[in-house]
């Protein structure tokens, strides 16, 4: 998936009017014109647009809809365009539902309770082709991973700096970039740069894999 143009249609599906307006405002703040935004409150409304040939390179989907599950939409959108960016914005933290959404084609998962900045960061990540996963969700998924087959010995020389090790431990506790920045008295940008360096050194591309790899190396 390449960077999406801000003129590409976006599907927003959420039955809560205030949440819908919040998401639309965040999209407008990113530069989307009103003409590119399609907002729906039900599964039926969203299916109406899809059944009439509408294509959405980007979709922001709630899972708990009054007339069905957003999982159905995720499956349909992914089947029509495997490169579509599908970000789940939901209050659901149940492991089987989260896994189902990701397996059906969701490219990201963020909780509704996050503030505007965190949701906007997830939106930007999806637009760049990323796969943002809420830290709380990542922690729930990590609990499902099997432990290493045998205890791994810590490397002779730790690949991470003292500050990177400190940040990695905060990441493992489920803290967001913003929370890490506040605890360490650095800017969110600095915290994000450290996390990118951790990803590079551990040869991973996500928080979940970074924590799993760090544990296998004995760094956590």
Structural summary, described in words:
The chain is α/β, with parallel strands linked by helices. It has helices at residues 17-30, 43-51, 70-80, 95-104, 116-127, 135-142, 162-172, 177-184, 188-202, 207-216, and strands spanning 10-13, 37-40, 58-61, 64-65, 68-69, 85-90, 108-111. It has a five-stranded parallel beta sheet with strand order 2-1-3-6-7, with helices on both faces. The chain has a two-stranded antiparallel sheet with strand order 4-5. Strand 1 (10-13), helix 1 (17-30) and strand 2 (37-40) form a beta-alpha-beta unit. Helix 8 packs across helix 9. The protein starts with 9 loop residues before the first strand and ends with a helix.
Task: Give me a quick take on this structure.
By secondary structure, the protein is of the alpha/beta class.
Helix content: 40-55%
- By oligomeric state, this entry counts as single chain
Q: What would you report as the Rg, rounded to the nearest angstrom?
A: 18 Å
Element order: H for helix, E for strand: EHEHEEEHEHEHHHHHH
Q: Label the structural class.
A: alpha/beta
Helices, by number, come to 10
Strand content: 5-15%
**Would you identify the regions where 5 or more consecutive residues have pLDDT less than 50?**
none
Strand order of the largest sheet: 2-1-3-6-7
| Tertiary shape | globular
The average pLDDT score comes to 88
| First-to-last CA distance | 33 Å
Strand runs, count? 7
Main beta-sheet annotation: 5 strands, parallel
